[in-house]
Design goal:
The protein has about 160 residues and is mostly beta strands. The protein contains one helix and seven strands.
Length: about 160
């Protein structure tokens, strides 16, 4: 049996949860990661994870709170393309590196079968830190963004 192994692609997923507050209550968590060949993928490394807490209040037993984070590394191949663009155009445009997102959410059951879920996301280096299309000089990155939203779910 050979002891040397060559891998051209590696990907793993981890997921878990623990219930410590009761049968319909608990703390759940997740984590995932992915590694992909840099020479043929825009994203060469990806990682995300989060936690959700449910049933934490006797007054609002069906409400949930969650927080999560994602990180995506731009591949060396794509970064090389950005450096080539700088070399051949003479424009010092940004070299993409990563995108990261922090998300916080609260799901409130406002009536039986009706949920309202405000969401906040903070996006760091949108599109990996790509060139801002509104910048005439093509030398500035897209700015970080704070995103607010509300989801509504009706089950009938």
């Amino acid at each position: 049996m050979p002891t040397r192994m060559v891998s051209h692609f590696a990907s793993t997923i981890r997921r878990g949860s623990s219930g410590t507050l009761g049968p319909d209550k608990g703390i759940g968590f997740f984590a995932r990661t992915s590694i992909s060949p840099s020479d043929r993928n825009l994203i060469s490394f990806y990682l995300d994870g989060g936690i959700q807490v449910s049933g934490f209040s006797a007054e609002r037993p069906d409400d949930r709170f969650g927080i999560a984070m994602t990180y995506a590394r731009i591949s060396d191949g794509a970064r090389g393309l950005d450096r080539d663009v700088q070399l051949f155009t003479g424009i010092q445009s940004p070299i993409r590196d990563f995108e990261a997102v922090l998300e916080m959410t609260y799901l409130a059951m406002v009536a039986p079968g009706v949920a309202v879920q405000p969401v906040f996301q903070y996006v760091m280096h949108p599109a990996g830190g790509a060139v801002d299309p509104n910048d005439a000089t093509q030398t500035k990155r897209i700015k970080d963004a704070a995103v607010f939203g509300v989801r509504t779910t009706i089950n009938f």
